[in-house]
């Protein structure tokens, strides 16, 4: 009896661990036109990222847009194990002396030399189909960030279901290399979901998207009535990793 109970407890623990879903923070820094961004880059690379790493956060992403539009933007993707971890780690930064010392130069930047105007933060819970961040293959240089808006909460929920119950499998089969998929729980454009794909170059990206569009299973599920009108707008941005990105 005790042996069976012990096995059952281990099964519950195993299920709990496997069901654990990441919480993602996505920051988008809008750089100040005409002001050097070196101070922000140094802060992220030498202060914030190492502090988060010490607290157990791994695979932090840092990207810039492929376009040369001005003002430029920096995208930072931070994966946390849970909302509790997000709260604990961020509150703990204030007592991290090493972080304070590494941040000193950044904190002394005068107002007229500030490298960014503001940054926008969004929070996401990971999809059940991809519950943790996926580190891309070495040499991935093209990252495609997509946001799908739903016209209603129901439309959004149905699109998430479509991904979890079929579309993610087709992504994997056709070489659309997933980095993360998240349901937005705080931030603009809600209700919406956001995901990121990684490719070695644009040629691989274009070829594999064609495989996806031509895939018979995608053609089948895309015509199912339950998934009709699930996406009202799609926003796409191409990113490239910064030198200190951990993805």
Automatic annotation (TrEMBL):
Residues 1-19 form the signal peptide. It comes from the Bacteria. Gene3D superfamilies: 3.30.70.100. Residues 24-108, 143-246 form the NIPSNAP domain. The keyword Ion transport does not apply. Keywords: Signal. It holds the Pfam family NIPSNAP. This is NIPSNAP family protein. It comes from Lacihabitans lacunae.
